[in-house]
Design goal:
globular; alpha/beta; eight-stranded parallel sheet; single chain; 264 residues; TIM Barrel
Amino acid sequence: MPSTFIDTHCHLTDEPLFSRLPQVISRARQLLVTEIVVPAYDLPSSFAAARLAATHEDISFGVGIHPGWLENKTFPESALRDAVIELKPAAIGEVGLDYALDHFDPELQDQALERQLELAEDFNLPVIIHCRKAFQPLYDRLKHFPGVTGVLHAFNGGPDFAEKFLELGYFLAFGGGVTRPNARKIRKTALMVPADRVVLETDAPYIGSHTVPKSEMEPAVIPLIARAFAELRGWTLEEAACRTTDNARRLFKLPAMKKTGENE
């Protein structure tokens, strides 16, 4: 049987994916994308992702507050901890720093990130990290949590910052950007990331690929992303599938094979 794929970052709780979920999952399975990790960005999406996982054995999920959803200059620390205890997620995330927002409070973002890294540490969970234009302050914060690991999702920080995060034990996730010939920084980073630290994602429905607009992105596009990554690295598609799937299982502590994958 050919190797399977894992989409490590897909917002199945959001439209247009949620309203056509059976078709989205069916198309993914047909192309051997047998498991999907659904990150959250606030408390409602954390519970929504948990509900999906409760009814789909091929879905895992995260619980967290994205920096873009920090409202009214508050962080719901107690409610988030209660959610982690109740829902038992596979990860904390997506969390991080975003200095590309029109309006943001660096201090609040850092405080929220620190609290959520503490959650990851307390519950021995990986973190799904979002970062835009804040790689140095992100690194400065993460290095204070040597016991925490995770993934830099949709990483576009370039080889120099990649080295820093890899030294901390993090994985790097590549999505539609790696398929674009003009995405030089992303493609250069894809060439240097160690084979045991790379995972694949779509970030559907928010990031497109060279040939697929973001409105049409879904987990079934993962083999296309894998092929682009494989061509860059001089790998076969099978090798890309094996390596990235094994890495995703190790990152999120997923079983060797879920039942749905065995039965497909």
